[in-house]
């Protein structure tokens, strides 16, 4: 019997704000980060890695929340945790004191997602399968047992979910064979960060076309004239038939979104992404009505399954961009995939950041095999950075994710990366003024014996 | 010139789970807690206290988030922070890295609320006025400058908000005079916790009637037969004309909520509170359609102004129960009060917990004086516990909050209470097995030099 003997939590931060990678109209100085957990057992070959993605400050808050969320796993049997992931999820989620801090949103939900990502990673490793294949091999009943259907019965019952999955059961192998051949279609955002110069934009668009991409996404929303000029460049390079998507990262109110997108409609964008607050279901519905045929996409900040339920009910979106680390792992993602399939909305997950591409490839592949059975309108994000820190990095070829073949959820980072980029004690940060100041601050706190925080002016540089 | 020289953050927890105080169908073992901050200046008479309310575990996570959120205040001029609270709020809120962890929800939003509560407390103390009076003395322009109207322009513009406030400007003193005489109407939840016996319920209902309450609220949702019996007892004691409210604390899906409330409609509840997920705007609208004339109320878990905007747009609620610590303090609460007034929905704030009654009395009093101008359907929650820890406890007489007269937001706790109930080092917790184990765990962590968390089985008792 293999049991959970402990875990390690890491606050890992990459200094991406020093380039303009990841810059958009809302997030100008992101340090792409992961609050990362490794679950250990008494068998060194049985472990699980998981994380949530953040953009810098507050990654320590997530790490602290992850530690609390993971405590109930200690001493439990790995087989039981992995074989009944729905039960594991409900055990972790049921803490009513932690629930108060959400419910099902914010730091506590990110933390639950990170811990369950590690459980799913362990489950796939134990099975000797990549996660998508573990999921594809589960029966409809097993999948629905693992799914968080709470608060959803007005649009999706357990029986309905089982029926949906059962209908695709017999043809799963056909779709696996198809994807082994073609890969899963993806698009690139690497060209379109807001901080890039026009020349760099032009060059990166051409490179994307040359690499086989049929979809390219640009950030917009900071300045209308700039957006018009940049979209003109991109459309010129990619030609009239390739797909151009635009992403405003929530900077607009609803009326402003409508006016701005109408100005950009001349470049025939496939979708406008995050036109306004991610919480504004009715706002997205209003934008969608007003800017058609430009589609509306959102979801990377979609906090939970109840939000997505309403986005579907209100006909508010054309594309569902769920996030593998913002939702509470596969258990909640299954619910959103099932609802999206019922409403006929393509799920095109958000990716980029740290390790999101590694995770979402599994989700999209499984979605096609077992939930939607459809590739129409499907294209999953790909951003080409930070993959070198992962032991099983995603592989993209000719505009498509190649099916992962190694056991797990592709969630493991190299120990050398953790040692170098752990904040503030890793070798990279310890050598910076910021890391050094933070180390001193923490040491002083420890010396004074103050867990919380007697902070005095001058302490913070 | 007085500047912010530092702050202290406390993780304060009261062992309320040892009685059944606060027990409901969702939250069975709440330890009422506050993540509490005191802002200091170089003038000992100039300080500000603020907090967010939690129910136990995770209060440390909120405290850590509060520390980060408050850092930008260090070294700033108190006068400027207090005289332009909208600017202060936007400065703290604009951190895009912390925004990623929400946005505007969960732990980070609770923390922003706590810090801004302390700023408003300081502002009122500096003015020598109770907060309600400080707000009532501000011009429409000043109030709207302090209000977070972002993402709201499709239902409320700045000009519209100013016009609404200006219309009530000349008659404010009449309403102040009225409230000085009558107090602000409240209701009690002290009678109706789910864990109380029938005899205790009967006795507490009778006491509430004797104390002048015309509204009594009971928790429901755990067991339908129990609910029917308990509502029968309550209705019998309070008579046919007093108002009985029921509160399910989010335990139902939408169809279940409709069915259950129809069974309880025989007792003529004024409202059903939190029938389902607090995020489910369309779900609340469906419940409201189905259970009328029973009203629908929600808001204590209403995460932000965008959620409330949609609750109003969708005609989803009859009563808005915003929470003084879940929203980001007065800056966001003003936005919700203004929208509620525009849509004609009474704002009946959630209270109880730790210090929520102390805060919401100011908000409700101000709401009547300057925003709604109306008492129809208005009744603010009151729960009679833990007030003894506050230096300016709320005072209720004959079913109404007596207008607070001391300077501030009534947010200051006694140092003796902080010293006794700080977790885990306060004298109360240090003497308990749980507090003692937690102290050992933290000491071991410090000795090992691990900020995050190398946790091994057996470490946690």
* CATH level-1 class of the largest domain in chain A: Alpha Beta
Sheet with the most strands of chain A? 9 strands, mixed
User: What is the helix content of chain A?
Assistant: 40-55%
Q: What oligomerization state is this entry in?
A: homodimer
Provide an overview of this structure.
The structure is a homodimer of 461-residue chains. With 461 residues, the first copy, chain A, is an alpha/beta fold. Chain A has two domains: 127 residues, Enolase-like, N-terminal domain (Enolase-like, domain 1, 2-Layer Sandwich), CATH 3.30.390; 238 residues, TIM Barrel. Helices cover 44% and strands 14% of the residues of chain A. Chain A has 19 helices and 13 strands. In chain A, strands 4, 5, 6, 7, 8, 9, 10, 11 and 12 form a nine-stranded mixed β-sheet that branches. A three-stranded antiparallel β-sheet of chain A has the order 1-2-3, with helices on both faces. In chain A, β8, α14 and β9 form a beta-alpha-beta unit. The radius of gyration of chain A is 22 Å and the shape is globular. The model of chain A has no long low-confidence stretch (mean pLDDT 94). The interface between A and B is large, with 88 and 88 residues. β13 of chain A pairs antiparallel with β1 of chain B.
């Amino acid at each position: 019997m293999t049991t959970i003997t402990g875990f390690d939590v890491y606050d890992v931060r990459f200094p991406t704000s020093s380039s303009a990678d990841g810059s958009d109209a809302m997030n100008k100085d992101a340090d792409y980060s992961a609050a990362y957990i490794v679950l250990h057992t008494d068998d060194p070959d049985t472990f699980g890695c998981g994380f949530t993605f953040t953009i810098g400050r507050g990654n320590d808050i997530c790490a602290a929340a992850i530690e609390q969320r993971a405590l109930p796993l200690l001493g439990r049997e790995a087989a039981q945790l992995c074989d009944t992931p729905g039960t594991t999820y409900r055990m972790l989620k049921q803490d009513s004191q932690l629930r108060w801090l959400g419910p099902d949103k914010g730091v506590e939900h990110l933390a639950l997602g990170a811990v369950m990502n590690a459980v799913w990673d362990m489950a796939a490793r134990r099975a000797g399968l990549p996660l998508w294949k573990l999921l594809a091999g589960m029966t409809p009943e097993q999948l629905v047992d693992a799914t968080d259907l709470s608060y959803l019965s007005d649009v999706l019952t357990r029986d309905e979910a089982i029926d949906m999955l059962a209908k695709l059961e017999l043809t799963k192998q056909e779709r696996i064979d198809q994807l082994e051949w073609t890969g899963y279609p993806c698009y690139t955002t690497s060209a379109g960060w807001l901080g890039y110069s026009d020349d760099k934009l032009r060059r990166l668009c051409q490179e994307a076309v040359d690499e086989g991409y049929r979809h390219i996404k640009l950030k917009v929303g900071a300045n209308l004239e700039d957006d018009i000029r940049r979209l003109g460049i991109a459309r010129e390079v990619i030609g009239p038939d390739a797909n151009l998507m635009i992403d405003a990262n929530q900077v607009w109110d609803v009326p402003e979104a409508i006016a701005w997108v109408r100005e950009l409609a001349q470049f025939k964008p496939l979708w406008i992404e995050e036109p306004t607050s991610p919480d504004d279901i009715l706002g997205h519905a209003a934008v969608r009505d007003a800017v058609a045929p430009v589609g509306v996409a959102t979801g990377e900040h979609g906090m939970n399954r109840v939000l997505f339920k309403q986005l579907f009910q209100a006909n508010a979106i054309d594309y569902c961009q769920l996030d593998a680390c913002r939702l509470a792992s596969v258990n909640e993602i299954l619910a959103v995939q099932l609802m999206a399939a019922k409403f006929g909305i393509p799920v095109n997950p958000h990716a980029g950041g740290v390790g999101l591409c590694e995770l979402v490839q599994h989700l999209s592949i499984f979605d096609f095999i077992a939930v939607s059975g459809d590739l129409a309108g499907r294209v999953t994000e790909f951003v080409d950075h930070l993959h070198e820190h992962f032991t099983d990095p995603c592989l993209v070829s000719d505009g498509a994710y190649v099916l992962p073949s190694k056991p797990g959820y592709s969630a493991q980072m190299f120990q050398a990366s953790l040692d170098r980029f752990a904040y503030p004690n890793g070798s990279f940060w310890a050598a910076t003024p910021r890391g050094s100041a933070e180390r001193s601050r923490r040491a002083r706190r420890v010396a004074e014996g103050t867990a919380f925080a007697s902070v005095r002016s001058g302490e913070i540089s």
